[in-house]
């Protein structure tokens, strides 16, 4: 019998919590949790870095043969061919409204940007109108081909190095199921089409168990039965899905249901989606998911976290935000249920001109949000009956030299934004406008009483308005104030900057 090779276990790191020594003033349990979180965050950052490198490598590999063909054609036909190519690519981008594709810049966009950059290079600009222009253009293209090849090789080496480092450690990501045996009694079902629409509708048999005071973990995993997490639940709070800044930004994107009243729980017969829905909102969602693919990973918990956020926002009176969170949570579910190409399939159907698929999905959103709203109202009544709400959320500065101020938006941003001053060239006006619009939307989501208090910019007035709110609502409002940049802290301390002792 051959010897067993145990060398692979040399890379498995085992740790006993009892071996960890910490400072007497540091809580050991908190230190261990911090270390675990630090490991997972670093691992997540490596995944994101790898994803970006792989995407850049794919783009470089696709651009290389296009550049080579351009070089040969320019060498053969001269600067005239180069100019025709620039004109062709420019016209194509103008047809798309000077916008990138749904997954970012297309290959044509990348080539156009490169050709325009070559046109601005010193040797090319100085050669315009001369016989040397043809050879100078070819040399410039070949120079960029060499840079592209060097960068591609650099990325390949980096990915190879990351692979070697990953193989040195055994993590949960590298584990695969070995032997497993199970017996499932199958229910005979009629054959269904692959990637049917709506996903999993009519082909999944579920047994629904009605529970009193269900936990938040149950609520987030079952969107048909939403309710709050009670303060005295025995579940560990660490199991609660965590909302991240990326999830919040995704939830805040414009909703396709924006023109529909919040009280609507179902579209009426004869509803015309093309005229009454904001279907172009799906374009922004598609673009955002293209640059934040981690939102689609099941282990990221996007859908669960957004459903919990939807309930908390509804409890806090942020009804519009609650429905937006519900919409994005179900969108993630639909994309994942449609299979490998689920994202493309979903958004193709959403942006279809007849809008029938959008009605199916958005009807699901309306009914799910209606259940969340209903459950939130029940819990509000219960908390009031139990006397909750005696506590108040008040804004106070711990440092006596700190002054709390409020900077409220004057209105929605203009259609065109011109950036001036230091650092203006590093900012994208479209992103700035999107941020200003989101800031204005957050301000408008507050109730009239609180908006009037903010407009006074008086801390006492704002605290009085916060004091009239339930604690849960006030907590969400303060978070939104900070997220929108409305809440500011300014120091009044006078510092000696002269260096005198």
Molecular structure report:
With 501 residues, the chain is mainly alpha-helical. The chain folds into 3 domains: 145 residues, no CATH class; 141 residues, Cdc37, Hsp90 binding domain (Methane Monooxygenase Hydroxylase, Chain G, domain 1, Up-down Bundle); 90 residues, no CATH class. The protein is 54% helix and 2% strand. A two-stranded antiparallel ribbon has the order 1-2. Helix 10 crosses helix 13 and helix 11 crosses helix 12. The relative contact order is 0.07. One of its GO terms (cellular component) is cytoplasm. It holds the Pfam family CDC37_C. It is found in: Cytoplasm.
Distance N to C terminus: 81 Å
Helix/sheet category:
mainly alpha
| Number of discrete domains | 3
**Envelope shape:** globular
SSE pattern, N- to C-terminal: HHHHHHHHHHHHHEHHHHE
Average pLDDT reading: 75
Estimate the strand proportion: under 5%
Low-confidence stretches: 13-18, 175-190, 202-238, 494-501
In spatial order, strands of the major sheet run 1-2
If helices are DSSP runs of H or I spanning 4 or more residues, what is the number of helices?
17
DSSP strand tally = 2
Biggest sheet details: 2 strands, antiparallel
Radius of gyration: 28 Å
DSSP helix fraction = 40-55%
Region (Disordered): 159-244
Keywords: Chaperone, Cytoplasm
Organism: Malassezia globosa (strain ATCC MYA-4612 / CBS 7966)
Biased composition (Basic and acidic residues): 159-176
């Amino acid at each position: 019998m051959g010897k067993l090779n145990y060398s692979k276990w040399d890379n498995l790191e085992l740790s006993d919590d009892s071996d960890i020594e910490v400072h007497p003033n540091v809580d050991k349990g908190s230190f261990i949790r911090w270390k675990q979180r630090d490991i997972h965050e670093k691992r997540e950052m490596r995944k994101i870095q790898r994803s970006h490198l792989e995407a850049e490598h794919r783009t470089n590999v696709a651009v290389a043969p296009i550049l080579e063909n351009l070089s040969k054609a320019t060498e053969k036909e001269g600067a005239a061919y180069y100019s025709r190519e620039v004109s062709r690519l420019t016209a194509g981008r103008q047809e798309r409204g000077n916008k990138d594709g749904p997954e970012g810049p297309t290959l044509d966009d990348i080539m156009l940007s490169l050709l325009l950059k070559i046109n601005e290079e010193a040797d090319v600009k100085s050669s315009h109108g001369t016989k040397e222009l043809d050879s100078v253009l070819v040399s410039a293209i070949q120079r960029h081909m060499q840079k592209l090849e060097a960068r591609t090789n650099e990325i390949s080496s980096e990915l190879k190095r990351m692979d070697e480092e990953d193989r040195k450690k055994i993590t949960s990501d590298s584990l695969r199921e070995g032997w497993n045996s199970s017996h499932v009694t199958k229910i005979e079902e009629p054959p269904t089409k692959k990637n049917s629409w709506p996903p999993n509708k009519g082909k999944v048999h579920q047994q629904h168990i009605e529970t009193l005071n269900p936990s938040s973990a149950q609520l987030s995993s079952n969107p048909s039965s939403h309710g709050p997490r009670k303060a005295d639940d025995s579940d560990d709070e660490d199991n609660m899905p965590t909302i991240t800044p990326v999830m919040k930004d995704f939830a805040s994107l414009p909703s396709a249901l924006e023109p529909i009243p919040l009280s609507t729980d179902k579209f009426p017969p004869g509803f015309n989606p093309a005229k009454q829905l904001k279907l172009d909102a799906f374009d922004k969602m598609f673009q955002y998911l293209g640059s934040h693919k981690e939102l689609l990973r099941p282990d990221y918990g996007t859908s669960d976290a957004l459903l919990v956020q939807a309930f908390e926002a509804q409890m806090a009176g942020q009804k519009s935000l609650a429905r937006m969170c519900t919409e994005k949570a179900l969108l993630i579910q639909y994309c994942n249920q449609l299979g490998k190409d689920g994202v493309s399939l979903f958004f193709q159907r959403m942006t279809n001109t007849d809008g029938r698929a959008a009605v199916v999905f958005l009807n699901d959103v309306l009914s799910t949000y209606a259940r969340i709203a209903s459950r939130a109202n029940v819990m509000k009544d219960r908390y009031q009956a139990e006397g909750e709400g005696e506590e108040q959320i008040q804004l106070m500065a711990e440092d006596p030299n700190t002054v709390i101020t409020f900077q409220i938006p004057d209105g929605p941003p203009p259609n065109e934004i011109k950036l001036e001053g230091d650092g203006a060239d590093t900012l994208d006006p479209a992103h700035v406008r999107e941020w200003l619009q989101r800031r204005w939307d957050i301000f408008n989501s507050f109730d009239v009483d609180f908006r009037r208090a903010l407009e006074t910019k008086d801390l006492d007035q704002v605290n009085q308005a916060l004091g009239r709110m339930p604690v849960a609502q006030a907590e969400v409002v303060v978070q939104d104030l900070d997220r929108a940049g409305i809440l500011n802290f300014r120091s009044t301390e006078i510092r000696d900057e002269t260096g005198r002792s």
